[in-house]
Structure prediction request, 938 residues.
Amino acid sequence: MSSDYPGTSLSEKEIQDGTVLSVQDKLLGNFAWDTGIAIGKYLAGFKDGVILGSYCTQCRKTVVPPRNVCEWCYRPMSEYIPLGDTGVVNTFSLCYVTWDVKRIKDPEVPAVIDLDGASPLHGIMHKLGDVQPDQVKIGMKVQAVWKPAAEREGAITDILYFKPIEE
Amino acid sequence: MSMRKVAIVGAGMTKFVRRALETGKELSWQATRQALDSCDLTMDDIEAVCLGTAPDAFDGVHMKGEYLSDGAGAWRKPYMRSYVGGGTGVFVPIQGWYHVASGLFDVVLVVAEEKMSSYYPHAQAAFLTIFDHTTERPLKPNLLWIFALEMNRYMQTYGISKSDIARVAVKNKRNAADHPSALLGDAEITVDDVLNSETLAWPVNRLDVSPVSDGAVAIVLAAEHVAKRITDKPVWIEGVGWNLDTAYWTNRDLAYPRYVEYAARMAYDMAGIKEPRKQIHIVEPYDPFDYKELHHLEGLLLADRGQAPQLVADGITHRDGDMPVCPSGGLLGVGNPIAAAGLMKVAELFWQLREEAGARQVPGQPKRGLAQAWGDLMQVGTVVIVGR
Amino acid sequence: MSDRVAIIGIGWSGFRPISPELSYKELMYEAASRAYNDAGVDPRKDVESFITVAEDFHEGTSIFDEYTPDQLGAVLKPMHTITGDGLHGLATAYMLVKTGQFSIVAVEGHSKASNILTLSGVTAYAQDPVLNRPLRLNTQFVAGMEMNRYLHDTGTTAQQCAEVVVKNRRNALHNPSAPYGADLSIGDVLSGPPLAWPLGSRETAEHSDGAIAFILASEEKALYLSDFPIWVLGIGWSNDSPSLENRNWGVSNSTKDAAFMAYRQAGIASPYQAVDFAEVDDIYAFKELQVLESLGFFRPGEAGPATQEGLTQKEGAFPVNVSGGSLGIGNLLDANGLVRALEIILQLRGEAGPRQLEDVSIGLAQSWRGIPTASDAVAIFSN
Prediction:
């Protein structure tokens, strides 16, 4: 086995000051994804301030986000069930870096929230707000905070965040 | 049982660096050159090429499999690229395996390449687009969220502490100090170094993570009758397995990677392994974050659920322990050019089983090893078991 | 393993220019569930491995593999993505069955081209980022250059290329799944606006949405499950140089090499004698002629005159693209190869309705990954 491994390491500076030549470009990638039946209903529900799940009559499971086929028994699903907009924190993180790698002082708090009305361990990803980072716990009960009805667009962001329910 | 035995007969890799001068094509070529030289073959001997590489978004090239094909030697040859996210590095040898095991080809080149540094200024931003475009992306999610959410759930479910987990980073980075290709080898690092490093997304700290890297790895596979002519130390592929869980990751319990278990069972069945903890001598699980090594050891049925940290604490997973884990230094130590990192683990087993791993050599003449990778939205498990 | 592999189920959804009422997942479900039903299998119990063909930038999602298992019934099963054409996916399924480890395998491909608002921008990203992209050319220039050289080398005429459009779009009128059926004259085709001269826009296929799935089985399972398995006689695939600067313009080496591999497996020495009909790439009309020659059905320069003389019409001696081809059905991006193979299977089963050819027993499907690639696959089927 050769002990000489090829590969030349560069530094950020060499690219920035032009020691190494580079070409820059941006992808023009615009898409308009058809939401289809299940997600179309889901988003329409958001506009009305309701989180919808779908129910599989064979597996007797209520899942969210809704979908038109049950991935477990492969039967079509066509029953849409309004769920509560409360739930329990399944897991969370305190994130000090944005998606595009900028540092922030106050952390974003992404979480998976198991929703009331859905089968156990079925939830959605969203963010927590109105809460001190060191107070967030797995198992905490939370409630959705919605945009005012007039401002809702039919999008996941119609819910601003989930906040702790005061016991 | 597979009718046709397939062996790894050669392997090569580039250095793993944060930012390589070489283009993706050149990295692929360098690794391929090394692999062919290691078994005295040329591209004329290669009948088909399989390439694995993770998101096209990194390189900024659409259909990047086509773009890389000449670097991987696929000129006027049958060529395909497989793609299962982070699992690709251990999937692409499986792809090579089915090329040979099907009877269609006798000698196949398998290449894994990643050039993450092309994404400017930081490859992490490209991961925004792995989330569901309608139900998740509007929240501007971050790659770190996935790992932090999973790590938190795992820690909470089994009562595992951050320092239990940090021991894995320490072990792997120390192991990597003996790897000539390694980016992050550090013979002196301690648990405190890891715990005191910057918090990125609690519970994830900077030194819990293996960073963006560039690199490429290549291996050569051959059918039995040919393998024996090429080398007197073929390393046989004894079992392969892969499994993909639901995209609806918020409908699953993240504390346990059941898809890794299913992939492992498929590979164990094919290899005829009934007691993996006794029969697997070296384990190279996927370790992009330190807790992942533990998570995966449990999914691979090599530790009871929640018990993997104890194996680390007891020294069992050290290079000279009863079950060495990541003797290469893993992703945490060597670097994480996504697909190449997975194939690096398979190459490591190849060298280890032939007693060619130099300073990293696991003592005791290991005869059987397992490499595993993971990817997508905490969804895919890919497993390869090799033996002498 | 020398046992044969058969197609035992086919299903598709579409094909049409837009599909706003269904998401890509719902399109995939429609196609896959029809295929499973056709094969008489339950994906949750019987199908042992699944493959999809897709490209991230066509979907607008990185690691698109994540979003594939649920609607195919593949959750917690061995499933993987091949970034290739549908026929590459088919070749993968074929290899998996031939290993002896998997006896029933599903392969799927789809297109939601209508959702890609900046498709030409995305396609331009497949050009070499340093050497070609800075020229800021619409990628169709590659097809134009190749057509120009092909016409030059072979003496094929613009009229002969236009004949392909007329033939295929008329054929599409008899295909209920084809949205672009039309009764055109040569003049209609040639008087269209130029796209990348000498390529005209009316010689270039429009896009369509849709999904398509095939179920493959080992010989033993196929004979058990199906009354009419369609056998894979041979399958080949190959790449030429991706570099435009290194290419042999005018010749499609990747088609030749892929065909050679398939013919060798099928034991075919004289393609024109052995094969009864074919479905080949016609995203650009000239390609049908070039490919027919690269496949060995005609000598260089003879496919054009043969088309003019009607040899490749439905009633002719060697029907080509009776389905309407991409010109009639639409360019379905990565799924094209499966759409080509679909017609072969339907014809061999006797299920092609108004398009049914008489007495066919061996059909060939060929496809290509599109500009700017040089990557082809060829599959030969028999009943």
Summary: Strands of chain A lie at 51-56, 61-63, 79-83, 86-92, 94-97, 103-115, 123-128, 141-146, 159-164. The first helix of chain A runs from residue 12 to 16.
